[in-house]
């Protein structure tokens, strides 16, 4: 009897969702659209940076150095500057983000065994890109130095044989790092907004008062209102994972069951948070604003999605323990990229489960008190 009432509410909610195809399409289709937009827009890979070259030497050796920069795909030569060119003006107008200056006598100095100065001017307005460019340039010049030593001595026998190897993401694609974070962010946002707006819509239309006078208990009402959106969110999660495979080539290396269990627990917490938001506001506009603010910002800035948690101030690091996306992100990257079982991440999974239960219970208590 109790289950039949609960499923009756769920059926009523699902019928109402089907009558609103725009909202239903947004709940299922918008996550994939978000993934498409953010997945291509957010990219930390630094390649094809505009490079201006002031080659004052004009020799085969100087041209070979420029070619090594261009052939690396990190730089694209966009200008060949004459002597005396205003490099500061070029940087100010963003015509180039890096300017390579090769002095006159570069080849002659190297051929005679002398050191030759080489200058790279980098636009430091974007500190992260500038740091990356300096690392690329140091590596390229280092390779050129090794080549010169080898030409002079005939052999190179370094005392340390360095053999780096990158696991899980050999190509160092930032997309592989960002897409799991996008999944957690998008699911949190859509799940919170769907339940928050659903409950508040009943308040605005006055139908919540009608539901209160029915034989439904608060538990049956809350669970019945949540189940359809849990099913819709799981479908949206499937759509996102398929889109990630098709658009970005990200395959799930681990167990689908582990991924489903973690996603289910995460969505329960997100839906519970949406219910909690609905108990605090009375209009759909306020529900949308509060749900977006309280779910989106922590999922982006305090989950480790973009900014490393260990580099944050101690106060913010403490706050991140209350952000469920932090734990879900660890599990997602482990299961999807590393193929690790869920048991390896038992601690973040336990904390995620604890969060989901606590927020759902707190939301139930709030709504039950309002019902009373």
TrEMBL record:
<dbReference type="InterPro" id="IPR013525">
    <property type="entry name" value="ABC2_TM"/>
</dbReference>
<keyword id="KW-0813">Transport</keyword>
<dbReference type="InterPro" id="IPR000412">
    <property type="entry name" value="ABC_2_transport"/>
</dbReference>
<feature type="transmembrane region" description="Helical">
    <location>
        <begin position="293"/>
        <end position="312"/>
    </location>
</feature>
<dbReference type="InterPro" id="IPR047817">
    <property type="entry name" value="ABC2_TM_bact-type"/>
</dbReference>
<protein>
    <recommendedName>
        <fullName>Transport permease protein</fullName>
    </recommendedName>
</protein>
<feature type="domain" description="ABC transmembrane type-2">
    <location>
        <begin position="130"/>
        <end position="370"/>
    </location>
</feature>
<feature type="transmembrane region" description="Helical">
    <location>
        <begin position="177"/>
        <end position="200"/>
    </location>
</feature>
<keyword id="KW-1003">Cell membrane</keyword>
<dbReference type="InterPro" id="IPR051449">
    <property type="entry name" value="ABC-2_transporter_component"/>
</dbReference>
<keyword id="KW-0812">Transmembrane</keyword>
<keyword id="KW-0472">Membrane</keyword>
<dbReference type="GO" id="GO:0140359">
    <property type="term" value="F:ABC-type transporter activity"/>
</dbReference>
<feature type="transmembrane region" description="Helical">
    <location>
        <begin position="227"/>
        <end position="248"/>
    </location>
</feature>
<feature type="transmembrane region" description="Helical">
    <location>
        <begin position="318"/>
        <end position="337"/>
    </location>
</feature>
<comment type="similarity">
    <text>Belongs to the ABC-2 integral membrane protein family.</text>
</comment>
<dbReference type="GO" id="GO:0043190">
    <property type="term" value="C:ATP-binding cassette (ABC) transporter complex"/>
</dbReference>
<feature type="transmembrane region" description="Helical">
    <location>
        <begin position="21"/>
        <end position="41"/>
    </location>
</feature>
<keyword id="KW-1133">Transmembrane helix</keyword>
<feature type="transmembrane region" description="Helical">
    <location>
        <begin position="349"/>
        <end position="367"/>
    </location>
</feature>
<feature type="transmembrane region" description="Helical">
    <location>
        <begin position="260"/>
        <end position="281"/>
    </location>
</feature>
<dbReference type="Pfam" id="PF12698">
    <property type="entry name" value="ABC2_membrane_3"/>
</dbReference>
């Amino acid at each position: 009897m109790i289950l039949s009432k609960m499923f009756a509410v769920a059926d009523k909610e699902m019928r109402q969702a089907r009558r609103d195809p725009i909202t239903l399409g947004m709940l299922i289709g918008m996550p994939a659209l978000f993934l498409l937009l953010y997945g291509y827009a957010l990219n930390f890979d630094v390649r094809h940076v505009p490079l201006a070259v002031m080659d004052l030497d004009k020799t085969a050796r100087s041209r070979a150095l420029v070619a090594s920069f261009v052939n690396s795909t990190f730089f694209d030569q966009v200008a060949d500057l004459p002597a005396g060119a205003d490099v500061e003006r070029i940087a100010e107008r963003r015509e180039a983000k890096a300017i390579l200056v090769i002095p006159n006598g570069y080849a002659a100095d190297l051929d005679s065994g002398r050191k030759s100065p080489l200058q790279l001017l980098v636009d430091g307005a974007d500190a992260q890109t500038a740091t990356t460019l300096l690392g690329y340039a140091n590596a390229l010049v280092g390779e050129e130095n090794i080549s010169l030593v080898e030409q002079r001595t005939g052999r190179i026998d370094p005392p340390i044989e360095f053999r780096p190897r990158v696991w899980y993401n050999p190509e160092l694609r930032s997309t592989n790092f960002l897409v799991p974070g996008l999944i957690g962010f998008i699911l949190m946002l859509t799940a919170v907004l769907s339940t928050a707006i659903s409950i508040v819509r009943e308040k605005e239309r006055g139908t919540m008062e009608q539901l209160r006078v029915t034989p439904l208990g608060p538990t049956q009402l809350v669970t019945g209102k949540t189940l359809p959106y849990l099913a819709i969110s799981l479908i949206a999660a499937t759509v996102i994972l398929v889109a990630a495979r098709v658009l970005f080539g990200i395959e799930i290396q681990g167990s689908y069951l582990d991924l489903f269990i973690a996603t289910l627990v995460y969505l329960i917490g997100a839906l519970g948070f949406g219910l909690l938001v609905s108990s605090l506001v009375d209009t759909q506009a306020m529900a949308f604003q509060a749900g977006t603010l309280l779910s989106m910002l922590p999922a982006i800035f305090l989950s480790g999605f973009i900014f490393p948690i260990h580099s944050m101030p101690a106060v913010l690091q403490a706050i991140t323990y209350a952000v469920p996306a932090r734990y879900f992100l660890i599990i997602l990257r482990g299961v999807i990229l590393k193929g690790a079982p869920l048991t390896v991440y038992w601690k973040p999974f336990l904390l995620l489960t604890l969060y989901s239960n606590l927020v759902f219970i707190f939301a139930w208590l709030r709504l039950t008190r309002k019902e009373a």
